[in-house]
């Protein structure tokens, strides 16, 4: 492969399953997912609906159910990295349902490779794309019908890094910091928040792993995948 041929689409713009999809949700689903793994979770089941999430929790009482918005009966956690980083999730399975991120990942469940990403796993995601040598990558910009600038900026940054280009991250992070989503989180418009959420969502490369989603026993399951630093080394 000589480089990534990137296209950027909103969820509604997905007409057919791409071969390789990078689903981006900076604020907050995939920042939360990364923190979930950092806190020890084994896997995340991406739920199709709130009812599905509740049903999974009922069937597996030891699983941890998480949704966006305010705390709700039947759910253990909210979609907030500031809240998540205080949780002990060692060995746990987490069920996640959010408005944008999880919907985007489920929309590309038939793709050959699905990565879920935010700023906190940007370089690991780009490295995985480089090491696997895929030529054509569809970046799913999950927020605001594909217009969310925090997601688009992150997607554009990962696309450039996946080609091995030296990229100054600051303008991309500035766009994310100045996005409507960041303002809504900072001003308390969104619910189920923590004061550090925006800052945590903007921590570039906080984690060394990428996140790969795949269908397992008819559920869409997200797992961390550590990617070797050397561009040509095999993926673990
Ligand atoms: O939790 C979030 O930040 C959003 C939901 S909302 O915009 O606050 O209602 O969900 P996400 O899927 O993480 O973008
Ligand atoms: Mg979002």
Automatic annotation (TrEMBL):
Reaction catalyzed: (2R)-O-phospho-3-sulfolactate + H2O = (2R)-3-sulfolactate + phosphate
Cofactor field: Mg(2+)
Keywords (A to Z) from UniProt: Hydrolase, Magnesium
Main enzyme class: hydrolase
Catalytic activity, EC: 3.1.3.71
Pfam families: 2-ph_phosp
Species in which this protein is naturally found: Streptomyces chumphonensis
Protein name: Probable 2-phosphosulfolactate phosphatase
Gene Ontology molecular functions: 2-phosphosulfolactate phosphatase activity; magnesium ion binding; sulfopyruvate decarboxylase activity
Family in the record: Belongs to the ComB family.
């Amino acid at each position: 492969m000589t480089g990534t041929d990137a296209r950027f689409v909103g969820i509604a713009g997905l007409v057919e399953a791409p071969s390789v999809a990078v689903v981006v949700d900076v604020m907050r689903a995939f920042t939360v997912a990364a923190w979930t793994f950092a806190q020890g979770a084994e896997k995340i089941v991406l739920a199709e609906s709130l009812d599905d999430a509740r049903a999974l929790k009922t069937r597996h009482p030891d699983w941890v159910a998480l949704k966006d918005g305010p705390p709700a009966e039947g759910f253990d956690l909210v979609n907030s990295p500031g809240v998540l980083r205080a949780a002990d999730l060692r060995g746990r399975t987490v069920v996640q349902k959010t408005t944008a991120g999880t919907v985007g990942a489920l929309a590309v469940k038939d793709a050959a490779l699905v990565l879920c990403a935010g700023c906190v796993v940007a370089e690991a995601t780009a490295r995985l794309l480089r090491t696997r040598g895929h030529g054509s990558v569809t970046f799913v910009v999950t927020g605001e019908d594909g217009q969310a600038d925090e997601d688009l900026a992150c997607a554009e940054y990962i696309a450039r890094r996946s080609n091995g280009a030296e990229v100054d991250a600051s303008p991309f992070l500035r766009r994310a910091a100045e996005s409507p989503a960041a303002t809504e989180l900072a001003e308390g418009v969104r619910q189920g928040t923590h004061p550090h959420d925006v800052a945590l969502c903007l921590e570039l490369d906080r984690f060394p792993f990428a996140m790969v989603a795949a269908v397992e026993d008819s559920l869409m399951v997200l797992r961390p995948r550590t990617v070797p630093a050397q561009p040509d080394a095999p993926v673990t």
